[in-house]
Amino acid sequence: GGARPSKSFRARARSVMPPPHPPARVREGRRARGGAVMADALLGKYRSLYAKARVVLERWSAAQTRATNLVDSVASIYERLAHLSETSRYGPLADSFPDLPARTRDAQYAALDRVLAALEDELELFDDLANLLDKIQRDGSALVRALRPPPPFAGALRRAHQPSLAECALGLEDVWRAYHDEATLKRVVCDELVVDASVEDVKTMAKLFAAEANVDKEFIRMTLDRVPAQSTSAMNEGRRGGGGRGGAGGSPRTRGVG
Questions:
Q1: pLDDT, tens digit, 9 for 90 and up, residues 32-77
Q2: Which of 190, 59, 58 is nearest to 120 (CA)?
């Protein structure tokens, strides 16, 4: 045959020729490893979001304790006002001090105004905390929507014991929805605490307020446990950055939600 190409020619030819395509099995392995790395990175971001959600719920729990005590105080004042409305209950004192019944009732109404003002602050805090949970769940949903190319099966695939990306995003949405609905219910309940409400109605409203019917605590716990925090650093970061009403260093009436 003809003359064979020199080694230098073959070397130059290899330098400009495209590399051969790897076998399909190799390509799939590379894609799977790349997807696993991306999923691990996103899971770390979800851990941070879940840690922030836990901090918000800690603040909610503290606000719930304060607000429940305030609602109980409202019920007690209504009950006292019902008794104080009868002048005969003052006995001989009413004869000696004719203005005593009116002054006593006025003092109770003044106390009621103070309690309702403090309760309004707590209701605003509930709204703010629900809004924080809304931002957290929107940030979680954006993590999946921003993936290019989109994850297969809308991110519903799980790896071993780790939750899927879809589960992470939907869990944050479930938590937000429960507390958003509860914040709305609390506002409705407190709107019923009007001057002409009966004592029994107020007591019923107090029980409804304390029950938090929209918040299934066991479901919330299981949802948050889907993405456990690897360390306390994220939660500490959330506490430092989540200062607001009811947080450390200020009263619920003087601090805003960060």
A1: 444 455 556 788 899 999 999 999 999 999 999 999 999 999 999 9
A2: 190
**pTM of the full predicted structure?**
0.70
Query: What sign results for the dihedral spanned by CA atoms 95, 99, 102, 106?
Result: negative
- Picking from 110, 119, 50, 39, the residue whose alpha carbon sits closest to that of residue 81 is 110
- Per mean pLDDT, which range of 12-26, 127-141, 165-179 is the poorest? 12-26
Q: CB–CB of 172/50 below 8 Å? A: yes
Residue 206, both tokens: 């107090």
| Cβ–Cβ < 8 Å for 179, 130 | yes
Cα radius of gyration (the chain): 31
Contact 139, 48 (CB under 8 A): no
Burial 97-110 (b: 16+ CB within 10 A, else e): eeeebeebeeeeee
Torsion sign (Cα): 65, 69, 74, 78: positive
Check residue 195 and report its DSSP letter: T
Among 18, 50, 60, 12, residue whose Cα is nearest residue 215: 60
Helices (H), the chain: 7-16, 24-84, 92-96, 100-145, 165-191, 199-211, 217-224, 233-241
